[in-house]
Specification:
A two-stranded antiparallel ribbon has the order 1-2. Helices cover about 45% and strands about 15% of the residues. It contains 3 helices and 2 strands. It folds into 2 domains: about 30 residues, no CATH class; about 40 residues. The protein is flat. With about 70 residues, the chain is α+β, with helices and mostly antiparallel strands.
């Protein structure tokens, strides 16, 4: 239902508690470009992974628990 609404041009907003909201939209609507700033962010994330500064979730329950903690 939500996907069909987005496909038909409706803006679909998904709320996650009081902390965050997300917009569901078809990818064709996005002008996605890899900018130098994005590449820097990706490299920082890779460095954090190499240093072990990551959170590993092995189950769906662990994923939900981690996301709820944000």
């Amino acid at each position: 239902m939500f996907f069909e609404q987005a496909d038909n041009g409706s803006q679909v907003v998904i709320k996650r508690g009081e902390k965050q909201s997300y917009i569901l939209a078809p990818m064709k609507d996005f002008n996605f470009a890899v900018t130098p700033e994005l590449m820097e962010t990706i490299e920082r994330a890779r460095q954090q992974m190499r240093e072990g500064k990551v959170t590993v979730c092995k189950t769906i329950e662990e994923n939900f628990k981690f996301l709820d903690s944000l």
